[in-house]
Amino acid sequence: MADNFFLPQASLDTLFAALAKDGRRILAPTDRDGRTELNPVDKPADVAKDYLQTILSAKEAAFPKVERLMSFTTGSKSVDLVDAEPHALPTVLFGVRPCEASGFRALDAVFNWDTRDRFFNARMEALAVIGVACTRKDDACFCTSVGGGPGSTAGSDILLTPVDGGFLAEVLTEKGKAMAALAPEAFKADPGLEKKVVDVPVAFDQPGLTRRLKDRFEDGIWVEQSLRCVGCGACAYVCPTCVCFDIVEESDAKGGHRLRTWDSCGGHMFTLHASGHNPRETQAQRWRQRVYHKFSYYPERYDMLGCVGCGKCTRACPVDMNLQEHLAEAAQA
Amino acid sequence: MTDTNIYLPHLMRIAKITEEAPAVKTFRLEFMDAAAAAAFSFETGQFGLYSAFGEGESTFCIASSPTRKGYIECTFREAGRVTAALADKEEGDVVGFRGPYGNRFPIEQWKGKNLVFIAGGIALPPLRSVIWNCLDLRDWFKDITIVYGARSVADLVYKDELKEWEARPDVNLVVTVDPGGDVPGWTGKVGFVPPVVEALNPSPDNTIALVCGPPIMIKLTLPVLAKLGFPPEAIFTTLENRMKCGLGKCGRCNTGSSYVCKDGPVYTLEQLNSLPAEY
Fold it and tell me: Each residue of B61-117: pLDDT tens digit?
């Protein structure tokens, strides 16, 4: 059960100062050159005022675009390995939307289902999330179709919902309590504020979609829907739950680094064998894999969805593929 | 809680290099760290990720038998950046190894059965691990048949071991090369693997078939085995989807909800039939 408080707008300064004094970096949506991105901020005034969402996702705080897995130096008949320490700064993610906050669960499912990924876990342990509920939406949003909601508390340590003069603050977890305890004077007694969030209509029957996928693998719908797809991978790179990665090396004659980078199942080389054989040769097969991975394989393997309905993929797509519409079509009998 | 770095390889010294065929080599590898060597064990069918530091990692099966202790072997064809860098290595050089990864052939369940191994080209290495494992436990099994085909005589790998298997009275070895791949004096068969298997006509009774080869060979051999009466649960193969992590995380080897690197690489035909044909 959450502890509810009122957080006056002016008290955000107190909270930010207390978090900074505690040695925590604050990442929040900022407006730069017409783009809303997550960046380090010092004070609430730096936070974007009227954003819907950031372009990239919050996953970067736990799973960066590029990170070092190890380094090595090479001699004539020797190799020395240097283990890599996760660059895990104590971080507060401020202002992420509930859809994105809930996305970390899907990353955790993959990074820890069997062996534990040190790099992801170190960052998650150092991470706390102050989410902000949604009072606006756009046509790409479909959180309520995938089990979320504009006021969902899942994944947030504290969830703020805008109200007159400030926020209703729901302190949800031990990490949330620890943050609130850094600035107790900022949190006022809750005068019984009503939590008002935007209405996001349910766009399709998700359990029905997951059931339908069982017998639609060979359906022509995947070819039709993917005809426009250029395989650029933008959808995967902006996605809060896409976790597929590549492992590459940067080196010179004396040594180098082994790095992990984001990757996308939309690229034709993702599954290409050295022999030239490619299990997913066509863009239609790769589009189908994206939908099945999130709505069939994730439920089967991890008992959850690999999609939070944030709509970032739809907004980022250069050829206007609309995930929500495609899923609604696929869910139909 | 501090997690270990699951992506960190072991360092291994190349103890021996064998030139198997054009652009195909076998490395015998020994752990450089005694503790790592002592802690290491694997089972037949498992694979590893081999590093040429500076170029990256590549995935191959462990081609030696777990009954042969103190080293592991891998056999690879030069096909890309990493394998080209590995091919440049000399005896005494250092490479990286992560593993063993994946599942295994359940050979203890095959006690008292006949075994038919069917391999094509550079896909003999994964079966070679099982073959030696089973030959080292020869009493467990009844008849052992090995059918091996390659494009040409020069492309046959493990040439010395083929002679050894041929000489054994307890192994029935059939070697074939593709039409046009023979040379004067060739005493083996000439023909593609699927019709050679069909002509050999192995009995499916109490028999396990293991098939490993290029996709086209597997695709054409499975119907032959079905025609001969082999049930899908008695046919085993090992998939080699592209992999990067080997740990069920990077997503590259997904076939349906299955990770080939974790749930495979060993599958029965019965299991493959339940997966999308994306391998």
Answer: 999 999 999 999 999 999 999 999 999 999 999 999 999 999 999 999 999 999 999
Q: Which of A160, A152, A96 is nearest to A127 (CA)?
A: A96
Query: What is the distance between the alpha carbons of residues A86 and A119, in angstroms, rounded to a whole number?
Result: 5
Q: Show the DSSP H helices in chain A as ranges.
A: 11-21, 98-112, 118-125, 174-182, 206-213, 221-226, 234-238, 283-292, 298-302, 312-316, 323-331
Q: Pick the residue of A77, A80, A115, A298 with the most B CBs within 10 A to test the interface with B by mutation.
A: A115
Q: What is the mean pLDDT of chain A?
A: 96
Interface residue B191 vs chain A (CB under 8 A): no
In the block, residue with structure tokens 């990665």: A245
* Pairwise CA distance, residues A262 & A8, whole Å: 39
Q: How far apart are alpha carbons A26 and A16 in whole angstroms? A: 8
Nearest-angstrom CA–CA distance, A206 and A210 = 6
B8/A69 Cβ within 8 A: yes
Q: Which of residues 229-268 of B touch A (CB under 8 A)?
A: 240-242, 244-245, 247-252, 254-257, 262
Which of A79, A116, A121 best tests the B interface by mutation, with the highest count of B CBs <10 A?
A79
Q: Say what percent of chain A tops pLDDT 70.
A: 99
Cα separation of A290 and A281, whole Å? Answer: 14
Residues forming a β-bridge with A270: none
Alpha-carbon distance of B52 to B76, in angstroms, equals 13
pTM of structure: 0.95
pLDDT in tens, B141-155: 999 999 999 999 999
| Structure tokens that stand for B209 in this block | 């078939």
Burial class (CB in 10 A: 0-12, 13-18, 19+), B169: exposed
Report pLDDT digits (tens) over A20-50.
999 999 999 999 888 999 999 999 999 999 9
Phi, psi of B41 (to 5 degrees): -150, 160
Confidence class for position A275, pLDDT limits 50, 70, 90: confident
Q: How far apart are CA B118 and CA B123, in angstroms?
A: 9
Question: In whole angstroms, how large is the CA radius of gyration of chain A?
Answer: 21
Reading the block at residue B182, the tokens are 């023979």
- List CB contacts (< 8 A) between B58 and chain A: 274
The residue ranges of DSSP E strands in chain B, in sequence order, are 10-21, 24-31, 47-52, 56-61, 72-77, 94-101, 114-120, 144-150, 172-177, 189-190, 207-212, 235-238, 254-255, 258-259, 266-268
Could you give the ipTM of this predicted complex? 0.94
Contact A122 B3 (CB under 8 A): yes
